[in-house]
Design a protein that fits this description.
With 430 residues, the chain is α/β, with parallel strands linked by helices. The chain contains twelve helices and 23 strands. The strands form seven sheets. It has a five-stranded parallel β-sheet with strand order 4-3-5-6-7, sandwiched between helices. The structure holds zinc ion (ZN).
């Protein structure tokens, strides 16, 4: 079977041709930042990387990492490498932990963004004729805009509803016959709950067949639940404001995340030592934007933990494959000497019969000791059945089998955890 590709020339490129293209673009990038930005020029001079002395992609390892702190120091436009007048669009992250990260785009950058997003959505199965309900929040945040650009490039209809007002979402989904839902995975689950409450059957009463989800770390088990809940195929999207927004990877029908490495050069590093790691080794993802004009990032540390493999996918794409994000290194918790990611607890919970997708991890500190517990909602039916001790025990056992750590689980009344229309808050501190 031949898989359809959006851009077969690039997506099915021979690895040595990809390397040549990356090298050509890398040289051009170094010249661009060296000539147009004082910060980069100084930084490159310090490590003796100049436009004329690059001989291989390995030379990239001489360049220091770009960190969030660098971005903050040059807030808002200090790292721009074009004339400010050439910028036609600006986005920013929410900046919950300090100043927001600003993402400026030239016309060419906007075109590039549309192109990589079209590639990603096409890989998910979106085609002209599809109707995408765009339930990411429209605003400074990159999400909604990236999905809109990509879908329009494919020729699909974009329903620009934004997030929130969930009953209206369901009415629009029904009346406009949306076939694709774009939002966070947790918001799609809240929508399913509201559809239930309005008397609909999420699987059979809508035309939805595809979910394009992102902006949240979620487990494979959660993906399976989302798919069952709506009767759809759910695809993962990954991206960052610092790199371009969504569109860094394209998830194919095999559910492999192919990195759009002709534009975003990936590396995996040891987060502690900064050393470059090889294929299959787990570490922190680092990206260099090879083709962006206004705001190129060279060796940006994402804080996201993953692996990159060089295995060949059955889909026909040769672009390198990145694993699902295990978690942000910021979300990593150390409990009694055990490293814990929220997605691992989620994976355990989702094994339990009668569990809903709504849960919260409670982190508390007793002196220097971090303790975790979990509150989770069973489904309404399971709640009414009673005997919740069994339910809690099963959840604890499942979590133990993944982490080798005892985490107390409490079943709480359905619909008590606050629902989210964007990124769900999975960990709370008490
Ligand atoms: Zn593939």
């Amino acid at each position: 079977m031949v898989t359809e590709l959006w851009d077969s020339k690039i997506e099915a490129m021979k690895p040595d041709e990809l390397n040549k293209l990356q090298m050509k673009r890398f040289k051009h990038l170094i010249k661009h930042v060296y000539e147009n930005n004082a910060f980069y020029k100084k930084r490159l001079k310090e490590v003796d990387v100049t436009p004329s002395n690059i001989t291989s992609m390995k030379d990239i390892e001489k360049i220091p990492y770009l960190t969030k702190q660098d971005l903050r120091d040059y807030y808002p436009f200090g790292l721009v490498c074009t004339e400010l007048d050439d910028i036609i669009e600006v986005h920013a992250s929410s900046g919950t932990t300090g100043k927001p990260v600003v993402g400026p785009y030239t016309l060419k950058d906007v075109d590039l963004w549309g192109e990589v997003m079209a590639r990603s959505l096409y890989a998910n199965g979106m085609r002209k004729g599809d109707r995408m309900q765009n339930s990411y929040g429209y605003g400074l945040f990159t999400g909604a805009h990236g999905f809109e650009k990509g879908a329009q490039k494919i020729g699909a209809m974009v329903i620009t509803i934004s997030s929130g007002n969930t009953q209206r979402q369901i009415n629009v989904m029904k009346d406009f016959e949306s076939t694709v839902l774009a939002c966070t995975p947790s918001y799609s689950l809240y929508m399913a709950e509201v559809a239930d409450d309005m008397g609909y059957d999420p699987v059979n009463d809508f035309k939805l067949n595809l979910g394009v989800f992102g902006a949240e770390a979620w487990s494979e088990e959660m993906r399976t639940n989302v798919e069952k809940r709506w009767g759809i195929t759910a695809h993962e999207h990954y991206g960052l404001t610092e790199i371009i927004g969504p569109g860094v990877v394209s998830e194919c029908k095999e559910k492999h995340l192919h990195i759009n490495a002709d534009h975003f050069y990936p590396e995996i590093i040891d987060p502690k030592t900064g050393e470059t790691l090889g294929p299959g080794e787990e570490g922190e993802l680092v990206f260099t934007t090879l083709t962006k004009e206004a705001f190129p990032a060279i060796r940006f540390r994402t804080k996201d933990l993953a692996t990159i493999s060089d295995e060949i996918c059955n889909c026909g794409r040769t672009l390198p494959i990145q694993s699902r994000i295990k978690g942000r290194s910021d979300d990593m918790m150390k409990v009694k000497g055990v490293i814990v990611f929220p997605s691992q607890i989620e994976a355990g919970l989702m094994q339990v019969e009668g569990v809903s997708e709504f849960y919260q991890i409670i982190k508390s500190k007793k002196g220097d000791i971090t303790e975790l517990s979990v509150e989770v909602e069973p489904t309404e039916a399971r709640w009414k059945e009673g005997k919740l001790d069994d339910f809690e025990q099963k959840a604890q056992d499942e979590i133990y089998s993944i982490l080798n750590l005892h985490v107390p689980v409490k079943a709480i009344q359905p619909k008590t955890i606050e629902r989210s229309t964007g990124k769900a808050k999975r960990v709370i501190e008490r």
